[in-house]
Amino acid sequence: MLGDVNGDGYRNNYDIDAFELALEEYEDWEQEFGEPIGINLLGVGDCNNDGVLNNYDIDCIADAVCANCMECDSDGLSGSGDDNPTAPEVFAFLREYFGSKGSP
Ligand SMILES: [Ca+2]
Ligand SMILES: [Ca+2]
Q1: How remote is the CA of residue 4 from the centroid of ligand 1, in Å?
Q2: 28-50 confidence digits (pLDDT tens)
Q3: Residues 48 and 60: beta-carbon distance below 8 Å
Q4: CA 38 to ligand 2 center in whole angstroms
């Protein structure tokens, strides 16, 4: 499922951490999610279908994930607690960190 980057069958804010990991360290993502679950990163993360997962996919993944999670602006990221960033905050960080080029 596109956007289900952690392969748990749901597309929600729990996928944001996995997406961030995939952007930062593909090898780590492959070990933690790809191989154990048998999912293809391009299948779940190449949101704009250009054949690679990179910063171009941030906006698309953000839309896909946030469209399906009512709790996007509450908790659920990186465990529990009140200090966690909201999904929009995380995506804002990712755009800044990786540099979002937006849609072609
Ligand atoms: Ca998921
Ligand atoms: Ca892509």
Answers
A1: 4
A2: 999 999 999 999 999 999 999 99
A3: yes
A4: 20
